Amino acid sequence: MWTYILRRIFIAIPLIIGLATVTFFIIHLAPGDPMALYRNPEISPEVMELMRKNLGLDQPLHIQYVRWLTSMARGNFGISFTAHRPVADILKEAIPNTLQLTFLALLLNLIAGIVIGVIAAIKQYSAVDHTITVSALFIYSMPSFWLGLMMILLFSLLLGWLPASQMQSINADLFGFWHRLWDRITHLIMPVFVLGIATAAGTARFMRGSLLEVIRQDYIRTARAKGLSERTVIFKHGLRNALIPIVTLTGLSIPFLLGGSVITETIFAWPGMGRVAVGAIFARDYPVVLAVNLIAAVMVVLGSLLADITYSLLDPRIRYD
Amino acid sequence: MRLTKGRENSRALLICVFLFLLPLACGEKKEQSADRSNPDDRYGGTLVVGGIGDVDALNPLVSSTRNASDVEGMLFLTLTEINPDLDSYSPSLAKSWEFSEDHLRLTFHLRNDVTWTDGVKTTAHDVKFSFEKQTDPLIAWSAIRWKQFIEDVEVVDDTTVTFVFKEVYPYQLMDAAVGYILPKHLLEDLPSEKWRTCDFNRQPVGNGPFKLKKWISQQTIELVANERYYAGRPCLDRIVFRIIPDQTSLLAQLKSGDVDLMESISPKDVASMSEDFRMGKSDVRIVRYPSRAYGYIGWNLRNPLFGSKKVRQALTMAIDRENLIEAVYFGLARLCHSPISPILWAYNPDMPDFPYDPRRAEQMLAEEGWIDRDRDGWLDKDGRRFEFTLKTNQGNRIREDITVIVQDQLAKLGIKVNPRLIEWTVFSDQTNRKEFEAIVAGWSVGLKVDLTTIWHSQSINDKFNYVSYSNPRVDALIEVAKREMDRSKAKLLWDEAQSLIVEDQPYTFLYIPEQVNGIHKRFRNVQMDTRGTFIHPEQWWVPKDERKY
């Protein structure tokens, strides 16, 4: 097993370097100029040139690439063009914020998705199943920016129950621990719901299909024939096997955990990775774009590795030697 | 079951919170008479400002965003302050100033009661140091050009400092006064190449009415009253900037009262918000004033299609600009006629006019040889159809709408316009490289009257004369006018330069928008005008009974 994991990690290194290189050249060769933000009649072209030089953008592309690669190898992500500070500092701030949001959303996605999917599968073709199917499709089709804005209008503007945006209230620093925790929870409710519910609808559909396929298998028939209770048949024999595709889905969601969600983060002013990434792309903030991409690449590789390892835990027939 | 119960609990809790907040919310709506002479009323309260973008740095020599300059204006002082007439100055860090007889030396007498927030006095040495850093090419301050005619800054004593100029020209005082003064004792040892990334940028020490308490990136910047401020502590306890990147969400929070101040409200929302305020349905007061921006269609004069002055004039006359502005700005903009803004003294109100007259436009185009010879519905000349691409930056709704309206209006004359929306950085890059036929764009003008960077032929290759406009007479007028000390003579020169540019129509000048901000009515003594949103925020106050935080 350990040999397998080490082999996978070893293979991933050239893959990640390759991905980072491709990203480097794509972003640099894409039209657009990082200096566009500074263009103003009050700023003289000489100053623009100096700023370009300060950012190292006056160098030929291959030199910029080598410089970037060597600094990356030393663990230095560089300095953001727009925030004038180390990219690592920006990521250090954004990653925990994003993790809070995406981890809870993933939890909501899995719990709600699996529970609803199982209910729909057990009650196949019943009114409950039809209601769940239609609602899931309805929720899945709703654009998250619309759902987010509607929730803000309803729960913040009209009812005043929940804060509309950001991670904490203005005076949160003055609150005691429990008050602060509650404050954070109220700020999390809407973004977590918006981010988690649509994917939960998808997971539920997936879970339903997977479980229906499993309960038609011979071993389920055997379990029932042995006289096991329906609960044991479904949860012990059925669910464990039906969860394998969900594990793949979850494995593939790992990059999303760190990547954040641009739309939800923007609407709820949640200061996470999604906003950092998109802001950097639009501003052509190359160091930030490259760092975010590198992290995403690493997470994709790690996510699929994690999924493969979990398979072996769920399915005793799968062994990696 | 447990899940359901949990939900019920949280719902009950939410209702409790709601009921708890209800009296507070109702209390807020009460109109109270308030008097600032009452000490209880004078000090306290928090202003929450909502903005869509974060600040890049709080060091005036490094930052480049508008949000940053809003905050910096509260943290640092300049030598003088510009007055509402945008032409004269009031004392600030300098209590008085005078020119030498030859007008080459300008001496400022500084206040001796101004201190940095760390307790050290602000002196003439800080002024000299700031000038040295402002002109340091390695730091590359964005307004470095303003200091180009200043030869040196001499410290006479702790409270007296003299600016020595290379030549005499009308804007010497403005050039000397522009830029915030920075603390020498904290920054003198910092190498120039480290300025963009130094700690000071996130932990500034200033001498203005407020000081930075906390800055959480992408979330909040919190300023608190500076107790050491020379004019006495500000009325407000705190000013909190909250970053809410989505405009719709930000507006919802302004309406809900989570945010007290929002800049640049979309024109389409203004009428209903003003009406709601008038009817007492909303607490958000709308504040409107002329902005420093103008919008235009720029014709690339290197393109043979726009080579003729008559064709450009005809294009302007073929566009119903009055209706276009009404359609996109809902009456919150006025027609623009000139490259010099009407807010400035040099604006010329009597200039050649090209009002909407499609028939005359058609006639002028025919005189230039543009006729629909092949009866395909589009004008043509020498086998070429009158067709061009009109570019603008994606995401600017107003400009996007303009390209479509212009397409429709010019199509009526047989001119085919292909609107193209391009992401901002790409649009800016293409404009800079002159890779366009026509653009819908805008400028935000400075307070100094100078047409050099946009209209002088020397600015074609490396500055902002994107449309490659060249008129030797205009060049000559600019050169003389910007050095003319006699205001009445300078006015005549600028008048002529504006008339010539307008006659040539390298731009179809479109609109001058109003700046529209919304602020909660509980804030008193609020000043906002063309100079900016935050004019003397230290004098803004909120009656005790109406305070929210």
In short:
The complex is a heterodimer of chains A (321) and B (549). Chain A has 12 helices and no strands.
Describe this structure in words.
- The complex is a heterodimer of chains A (321) and B (549).
- Chain A has 321 residues and is mainly α.
- Chain A has two domains: 72 residues, no CATH class; 222 residues, MetI-like (MetI-like fold), CATH 1.10.3720.
- In chain A, 74% of the residues lie in helices and 0% in strands.
- Chain A has twelve helices and no strands.
- In chain A, helix 4 runs antiparallel to helix 5, helix 4 crosses helix 7 and helix 8 runs antiparallel to helix 9.
- Chain A is globular.
- The model of chain A has no long low-confidence stretch (mean pLDDT 84).
- With 549 residues, chain B is an alpha+beta fold.
- Among the domains of chain B are: 144 residues, Dipeptide-binding Protein, domain 1 (Alpha-Beta Complex), CATH 3.90.76; 221 residues, Roll (Dipeptide-binding Protein, domain 3), CATH 3.10.105.
- In chain B, the strands form five sheets. In chain B, strands 1, 8, 9, 10, 11, 12, 13, 14, 17, 18, 19 and 20 form a twelve-stranded mixed β-sheet that branches. In chain B, strands 4-5-7-6 form a four-stranded antiparallel β-sheet. A two-stranded antiparallel sheet of chain B has the order 2-3.
- In chain B, strand 21 and strand 22 form a beta hairpin.
- At the A-B interface, helix 2, helix 4, helix 6 and helix 11 of A face helix 1, strand 10, helix 7 and helix 13 of B.
